[in-house]
Amino acid sequence: MTTLDLHAVHKTYGAVTALAGIDLQVREGSRTAIVGPSGSGKTSLLRIIAGFEAPDAGRVVLGDQLLADGPAIVPAHLRGIGYVPQDGALFPHLSVADNVGFGLPRHTPQRAQRVDELMEMVALDKAMLQRRPHELSGGQQQRVALARALALRPRLMLLDEPFSALDTGLRAVTRKAVAQLLQSAGITTILVTHDQAEALSFADQVAVMREGRLAQVGRPLDLYLRPTDPATANFLGEAVVLPAQLSAGWAECALGRIAIHDAQRSGAGQIMLRPEQLQLTELANEGLGAQANACLGVVLEADFCGPVSELTVRLLAHAGTAPLLVRSPGLHAPAVGATVCISVQGHAHVFAPGA
């Protein structure tokens, strides 16, 4: 069942087109991440869903309620939508208890019990209720902001880059905890982020925006392995894009003969591999003769990143091909200057003609 349905949503600011006809469906109880570079329109789209702004044209429907039909909109406070901004926007002069219960009228029956329940939901100790926001860590502040947004039992939760100010380790832990909380509560959620890894790990559905349009929408794994075009491929992670000749389920390219999923395609095309699909075997000088027909390269750069090393490898037999990025286990990565044999794991993705 679809909870949120956007149809042909347009928005301009003077001569600038922020949204150029957005169509998007969000299933009930799912998590959707809207990701894109700065200026792609993702924040404008979130603000229109929230009711903070009106579209110039298009429709926004939540469940069976029409929220926007062009400039005619339902006000934000009547939409039943929760919103967590980037900085949490807690009231610094109020206690945690008053922040969490801000949207609950003072005469609400069992108001204090509801606040306690919300603290438990976001895994915060009730001993924090009398603290002020400045006495909390960044992760705790974000959980308080989430509890406040959950107080009125929203039909839809909007998260506007809520983890961006957190340290890397805390960011991952908080993101996972929030995802589990929203899933267990059955709340449909939309996350806006510029962080590709965050979008892929958080969501059931990822929508990639570019220049006010949706470049691709789908499951995270599908978008990562089968992007529609090179721009989307490179936005969602490092990509090795090569020209190739296609025939009967195979691609002939600078890396040799590589399997592809599309057995119907033939002729010239472009293929994509992710760096982790390239495997390196270091060769001693005396072993080069036995590898005459192999794809050989030399390591130009090596960046140690802990569990993996990111290597830049130049192909020896294809001087005109740009150096390749390869991810190799960090403790056993070949050194700079090493000669390596390059093999490919899995299938290459073939871009559609004209992509």
Tell me about this structure.
By secondary structure, this protein is an alpha+beta fold. The protein has 2 domains: 2-231, Rossmann fold, CATH 3.40.50.300; 276-344, Nucleic acid-binding proteins (OB fold (Dihydrolipoamide Acetyltransferase, E2P)), CATH 2.40.50.140. The protein contains 8 helices and 21 strands. It has a 6-stranded mixed sheet, sandwiched between helices. A 5-stranded antiparallel sheet has the order 2-1-4-5-6, with helices on one face. A 5-stranded antiparallel sheet has the order 14-13-12-15-21, with no helix packed on it. Strand 4 (57-62) and strand 5 form a beta hairpin. Helix 3 (111-121) crosses helix 4 (138-150) and helix 4 packs parallel to helix 5. It is globular, with a radius of gyration of 25 Å. One of its GO terms (molecular function) is ATP binding. Residues 4-236 form the ABC transporter domain. InterPro entries: AAA+_ATPase, ABC_SmlMolc_Importer, ABC_transporter-like_ATP-bd, ABC_transporter-like_CS, ABC_transpr_FbpC, Mo/tungstate-bd_C_term_dom, P-loop_NTPase, Transp-assoc_OB_typ2. Keywords: ATP-binding, Cell membrane, Ion transport, Iron, Iron transport, Membrane, Nucleotide-binding, Transport. This is Iron(III) transport system ATP-binding protein.
